[in-house]
Write a structure and sequence with these properties.
Elements: E1 6-8, H1 10-17, E2 22-25, H2 28-31, H3 38-52, E3 56-63, E4 66-69, H4 73-81, E5 86-88, H5 93-98, E6 103-105, H6 107-117, E7 121-123, H7 134-137, H8 142-149, E8 153-156, H9 165-174, E9 179-182, E10 201-203, H10 206-218, E11 225-228, H11 239-256, H12 263-274, H13 278-304
Parallel strand pairs: 1-4, 2-3, 2-7, 5-6, 7-8, 8-11, 9-10, 9-11
Antiparallel strand pairs: 3-4, 3-6
Helix pairs in contact: 3-4, 3-13, 6-8, 10-13, 11-12
Length: 305
């Protein structure tokens, strides 16, 4: 039945079946994260970084109603150029499939499709979370619920700094999702290495992360793990500059009544505009950094699985 909906690239399929390391990648960053041709260039470099670190990349999307695991170069190009690709979370998947539409996967939907395909490691930019003002709006990303339920490790540069990081961490704690810092005790905040919040555990090697993942899933403790990997120091943005830009962007979003799934793309675009494009450069570099760590974790996990 699953074959009706799921199409796995032969190289990726072979890797999964033979216990080779595979790293899943989302596609929202291609369709909604940055302009063409930078989006396609970035996606292909991310795949190359994963290969250079001895793992197989599997970029995920929904094309013509089919769950695709391991996009070809041509499919990545298509996603990067095509307008009106739908930003797809858990609730959207049945409709994108039944209407044979194109969907770019978020953290939540990439986790779902990764799990269906048998991929355990996923590298992205930053996770969604509890939005600022959520005590009134209840605006909480579906990413967090997916992390509570789906057995996929997510390597990220922390939660996007446009969010309420403290409440995001509280939500993850309530749902039993471990938040670990790779070689750091502080939760990174996407563009910056600091947020003022602590992680649950500091872990210093990919081997230790893989061991913890194996123990978690061997024990039937369902759900993922957030592996927070700080942006490299030379690429991080000035904390005050980015905080000021985010405050301005949030104010404008509120004035324009932008809510729900439209809020994150709007806020990231606005921050990019305010910072003169510096935030985009930081965004790209942190994705590269996460891809590298994701590949290393996948390699270690494949050795012990």
């Amino acid at each position: 039945m699953l074959e009706k909906y799921l199409e796995i690239n032969p190289e990726v399929k072979d890797a999964i079946e033979n216990g080779k390391p595979v790293v899943a990648l989302e596609s929202t960053i291609i369709s909604h994260g940055m302009p063409y041709p930078r989006n396609v260039e970035t996606a292909l470099i991310v795949e190359k970084i994963i290969r250079d670190n001895n793992a197989i990349p599997a970029t995920i999307a929904i094309l013509n109603g089919k769950l695709k695991v391991g996009l070809t170069k041509e499919e990545i190009e298509y996603l990067g150029k095509t307008e009106n690709v739908i930003k797809t979370s858990r609730r959207d998947i049945p409709f994108i499939i039944s209407r044979k539409l194109d969907g770019a996967t978020t953290v939540a939907s990439t986790m779902i499709i990764s799990a269906l395909a048998g991929i355990k490691v996923f590298a992205t930019g930053g996770i969604g979370g509890v939005h600022r003002g959520a005590t009134e709006t209840f605006d909480i990303s579906a990413d967090l619920e997916e992390l509570a339920n789906t057995n996929v490790a997510v390597i990220c540069a922390g939660a996007k700094s446009i969010l309420d990081i403290g409440l995001t961490l509280e939500y993850l704690e309530t749902h039993g999702v471990p938040v670990i810092g790779y070689q750091t005790e502080e939760m990174p905040a996407f563009y910056t290495r600091k947020s003022g919040f602590k992680v649950d555990y500091k872990v210093d090697t990919p081997q230790d992360i893989a061991s913890a993942l194996k123990a978690k899933w061997d024990l039937g403790l369902k759900g993922g793990m957030v592996i927070a990997n700080p942006i490299e120091e030379q690429y991080q943005m000035n904390y005050n500059t980015i905080t000021e830009a985010i405050e301005k962007a949030l104010k404008e979003a509120d004035e324009k009544g932008i809510k729900g799934k439209e809020s994150t793309p709007f806020l990231l675009a606005k921050v990019k505009e305010i910072t003169g494009g510096d935030s985009l450069e930081s965004n790209i570099q942190l994705v590269y950094n996460n891809a590298k760590l994701g590949a290393k974790i996948a390699v270690e996990l494949s050795k012990i699985s």
